[in-house]
Predict the structure.
Amino acid sequence: MKKSIAVIGEGITEKYYIESLKGISPFTIIPRELGIKASSLKSLSKNIKLAIDKGFDEVYCLIDMDSKTSGKSKNAYLALKNKYHNRVFSKKNKGIESIVFFIETERCTELWFLYYFSNVAITRKFNSYKELEEELRRYRPNYEKTIKYYKSLGNIHKDFESNSPKGSIKRAYRNSNTSLLSKIIDNRNYSYSEMHLLIKGLGIYSEDD
């Protein structure tokens, strides 16, 4: 079954990563970036509504949880998630129907990147982005969250799987799944990713393959 998919990311990391997956997904994927000044919940809500209006079958929202763990930011995020996550939105006059998913990663997408290479950090707590970046640089020494770096790779996913030391999206999938299971067992709120659910939704890989 063909379906159209919109993936809304908070910044350039998600945009360039999703672009790199286009060739290996059987579906039409449209990455959307909130932008430097627009990584707010208000902007996220606006982009979700836009994707629904355009009639995408599925809308995935990639959420970095490092800034949403407490206080007003957490409450505002949970309210938005409750409004959209795993809900179907119909436009009967247009004959379209969209389902929205929130995909969380704590701290941020770079944890998913680390899962490509290693399973030792599944439950490790990273107290800052800097700590996580340093760990990722064990596998990609020049890694930095810049357009210049992402463009230098050409294709993030392909670079991770092709160049030494080689990573694997299947390993990342398994590590991501394990992080969620262990999060429940450990009753912790850090170091987990739901990105494997996106990969499954994009038809790239699942535990059934």
User: Anything to note?
Assistant: The radius of gyration is 17 Å. The mean pLDDT is 92. The CA atoms of residues 62 and 103 lie 5 Å apart. The first strand starts at residue 4 and ends at 9.
